[in-house]
Amino acid sequence: VTPADRAGRVDDAGLVDLARRGDRHALDQLLQLHFDRVRSLCRRVMANDADTDDATQEALIAICRGIVRFDGRSSFSTWLYRVTTNACLDELRRKGRRPIAMERDALPLPAVTAGFADDVADRLALDDALAQLSPDFRVAVVLRDVCQLDYEEIGDVLSIPPGTVRSRIARGRAHLARLVGEQPAGNQLTGHDRPKQSE
Amino acid sequence: MNEYDPILDEIVSAYVDGEATPAERARVESDPALLERVATFRQLHDAIASPPRPVDDERRRHLVAHALAEAPAPLAPVRSMRTRRFSAVAPIAAAAAIIAAVLGLGTWLVSTQENRDSDMATSAAPDALRGRDQAESDAGAAESSSMDATKSQGAVTTRASASAPAAASATPFLGRFADEAALRQALTERSSAPSTTIAAAAAGAGTTTGPTSGASSCGVADTAGATRYAAELRSRPVTVVVTGTRAEVIDDITCARTTLDLSNR
User: Fold this and answer.
1) pLDDT digits (tens, 9 = 90+) for A68-105
2) Taking Cα atoms as reference points, which of B44, B141, B71 lies closest to residue A173?
3) What is the mean pLDDT of the segment spanning B65-88?
4) Read out DSSP for A87-116?
5) Where are the beta strands (DSSP E) in chain B?
């Protein structure tokens, strides 16, 4: 959690309180403040641009409709991610694009080579790999990598223990690594999807 | 690390996320194969964390505006909800209050009337008790008579005014007089009229064998040949006992006695 996030949470408290009391302007501000977070989460969970807007729209609507029921027991960001995640999963189900759950025994052994980084950089079709990942694993990975939540926070969002979060993220990453290693050449990363080379 | 090892992948993944224990960190950092796996996971992490293509402002505004339009409209402030709730309840509460007020008023009126009756009965009781001192059978008649008389004269009738007609039921009622002179005048005019003597009353029906006026408790002697009257003198019940040319006026309440000389009549 960055200092900006913490500052944002402080600001959230006042806006959330106003929005819960019916202040439409405060609700508008909340949506504007968190729009990028919501859309980023939706983008990775939906794994394509076409469905991202639909999921984002459903998530924003769910936030507007549910804000009066937000009781403050969790942080607003946790609640926001939970609502958004559920909207994405509903959208996946509605579109019938839910992948078959990963079968561990059926997985091929990972073939990580010295040129794996180049494969990621040059051939990774991240969306395709994510789309093949079970939503349970996909959501855990995305909440960690996109939303920067720790395991406990992810557990709060998904209502599962932190140990399960840790396991799901590890298995999801392992599966993604395998899928990326199998990507055919020519699936170039876009500029926005290209991973940073600093690390 | 070329083999799929869920346990080791979990340690590596936790290491990438900064969630590994010190022992796990030490193990990863001491194993080149695990460090290679760390690099793989970090690249995946970076690729996933990279921001998506930004949405244009127009699309952003549209999505937000549409979501706001789908919100329960209008979002009601807490105070407004209370106001609406009050508006719904107010007519019912008002009706209930009116009914309660009507019932309360009715109850109060009934209670007041009962208390009035009770007070009247209580005020008549001494007279009745006095009557029972003489003859228990006459007491009932005196009590009922006094109550009837009291009701006819008003709610705040005193014991004095109530007892006068009671006495009249057994003794001729002479009338109401402003002073002794008027009473004496009446007695003078009545001298030739028939009167009820104590002896005659004693010889009559059982229900009138004795006087029932309040003076009975004042020790009025039942002298043979005396004539007894009931009257009101200065609005106070009195018993007048006429013996020859002498009339004794006895206040039924205080038992005060006044003697009038009728010899001049």
Assistant:
1) 888 888 889 999 999 999 999 999 998 875 454 444 33
2) B44
3) 62
4) HHHHHHHHHT-PPPPPPTTTSPPP---TTH
5) 173-177, 227-233, 236-243, 246-251, 257-261
CA pair distance A177, A183, nearest whole angstrom: 10
Q: Is the Cβ pair B48, A170 closer than 8 Å?
A: no
Would you call A119 helix, strand, or coil by DSSP?
A: helix
β B173-177/B246-251 pair status: unpaired
CB B171 within 8 A of CB B202: no
Whether this model's pTM surpasses 0.80: no
Coil/strand/helix, residue A146:
coil
Q: What is the mean pLDDT of residues A137-158?
A: 95
A52/B52 Cβ within 8 A: yes
Taking CB atoms and an 8 Å limit, are B48 and A189 in contact across chains?
Answer: no
**Geometric angle at alpha carbon A170, from B4 and A62, rounded to 5°:** 145
**How many CB pairs lie under 8 A apart between chains A and B?**
158
The pLDDT value recorded for residue B158 is 35
Q: What is the pLDDT of residue A169?
A: 96
